[in-house]
User: What shape does this take?
Amino acid sequence: MDFSLELTPDLVAIFLTLFVLEIVLGVDNVIFISILAAKLPESQQAKARTLGLTLAMVMRVGLVLLAGWIITLNDDLFTVFGMGFSGRELILIGGGGFLLYKAIHEIHLKLEGEEDSHVSTAAKATFGAVLAQILAMDLVFSLDSVITAVGMTSNMIVIISAVVISFGILLFAARYIFEFVNRHPTVKMLALSFLLLIGVFLIAEGFGFHIDKAFIYGPMVFAVLVESLNLAAARRRKRQGKAEEEEAVRLHVRTYATPVRGSADDAVTGHSHPQRDSSA
Assistant: This one.
């Protein structure tokens, strides 16, 4: 392990790469935490988000310091039908399977319209269970991130700095991401689809099928851009609808604000217009 502070162009480039990687993996983590925290009472949601992200950062830094032990997780523990399985692969398979189950379960609840009833019954005393699920997925995301980081550089200062700074940004943005995901049903479904995709990716990695992350995050970025266009179009239609409604109300009030001469109001009040009196 290297704790030197000497900065070189190569280390700066590695730091920026790790920082972007931590942000991307951190957003996945925030989305998962947001979906789990939404099951809790509103008074506990912010606490679950903050505690979950803080523990994720501590866990990631701890795994960085245990880089020597992390590397040993790549050694095969046993073999099944000629295929060896290491500790890292078992963690990836277990985490991917759990992520797959949670994503499918949440999508099922949304499609069947059972989400609200489950929230009211399952969110009474589940803070510990939710936190345990968050920690389990923190371990999976952290393990993948640390192994990638250690493979890029042995400078612990660079890795820890990228982790701490990225998590500081995510900790600030977590509330906004949480509110945005839960306020837009289509975005929440898209987020669940991302988790589904990441779960499949983790399981494939666990069984030894290496998939370039560009094939995972590239389509995800494209899907986010398309959904951003859909949300912008929806906001524009909503503004146009409000403008048309206000215009209709304004015209309606203007039409009936001044009584028409010779109307039934004159007959009721007994008033007559000067033109009619002169003709009489």
